[in-house]
Amino acid sequence: DIQMTQSPSSLSASVGDRVTITCRASQSVITYLSWHQQKPGKAPQLLIYAASTLYSGVPSRFSGSGSGTDFTLTISSLQPEDFATYYCQQTYRAPDTFGQGTRLEIK
Amino acid sequence: EVQLVESGGGLVQPGGSLRLSCATSGFTFSSYWMSWVRQAPGKGLEWVANIKQGGSEKNYVDSVKGRFTISRDDAKNSLYLQMNSLRADDTAVYYCVRSRGAWGQGTLVTVSS
């Protein structure tokens, strides 16, 4: 199975900050990489797929980059509604594994 | 609007069975891979299974192989998960997920005596 490792596991930041979360795959997943956001008590929502394609309706302050084994999710200017947990997921080879999550908290 | 609505969760005893359903609308269901993802209480996301368009390919996480069966009915725009020989560690919220797209709101499965 392909292992996905996110860093950091948790992060404190302020409104307006630029934030970057990284995701590393144990082997190449090319660009079969998605990012999901989950708020407490809610279902996850897709933010980005194919490593860098913004899903419909997602604000442009979110962006993704990377290929192969190393990927990043960047939020250019944090808004209050962005404080949540973020997961990366590879869909290159089954099982489609998730990272352990990055909890983004208000400083 | 893309919608996915799960149903069929509930409380079941260890060794029992449940069948989850996911009714979809707002997109061409037959054109997409579909998945089930679960989340145990207080834990992260775990991919469970997926199924290709037309149902010709199915994949499962090792922990459910031989116990769970994913299926789809393209005429009804619906996805299913038949869960047999349920164990306490199957307790989770189960989400229906469209590839490159939306998540359902989830249905809670609790396995306990």
Keywords:
heterodimer, A: 107 residues, mainly beta, six-stranded mixed β-sheet, four-stranded antiparallel β-sheet, 10 strands, B: 113 residues
Layout of strands and helices, then pairs:
The complex is a heterodimer of chains A (about 110) and B (about 110).
Chain A (H helix, E strand, L loop, with lengths): L3 E4 L2 E4 L5 E7 L7 E6 L6 E5 L3 E2 L7 E6 L2 E6 L9 E6 L11 E5 L1
Parallel strand pairs in A: 2-10
Antiparallel strand pairs in A: 1-3, 3-8, 4-5, 4-9, 5-6, 7-8, 9-10
Chain B lengths: L2 E5 L2 E3 L5 E8 L8 E6 L5 E7 L6 E3 L7 E6 L4 E6 L8 E7 L8 E5 L2
Parallel strand pairs in B: 2-10
Antiparallel strand pairs in B: 1-3, 3-8, 4-5, 4-9, 5-6, 7-8, 9-10
Condensed summary:
Chain A is an all-beta fold. Helices cover 0% and strands 48% of the residues of chain A. With 113 residues, chain B is mainly beta.
Could you walk me through the main structural features you see in this protein, from its secondary elements to its overall organization?
The complex is a heterodimer of chains A (107) and B (113). Chain A has 107 residues and is mostly beta strands. Chain A is 0% helix and 48% strand. Chain A contains no helices and ten strands. In chain A, strand 4 (33-38) and strand 5 (45-49) form a beta hairpin. With 113 residues, chain B is mainly β. Chain B contains no helices and ten strands. Chain B has strands at residues 3-7, 10-12, 18-25, 34-39, 45-51, 58-60, 68-73, 78-83, 92-98, 107-111. In chain B, the strands form two sheets. A six-stranded mixed beta sheet of chain B has the order 2-10-9-4-5-6, with no helix packed on it. Chain B has a four-stranded antiparallel beta sheet with strand order 1-3-8-7, with no helix packed on it. The N and C termini of chain B lie far apart (40 Å). Chains A and B meet through strand 4 and strand 5 of A and strand 5 of B.
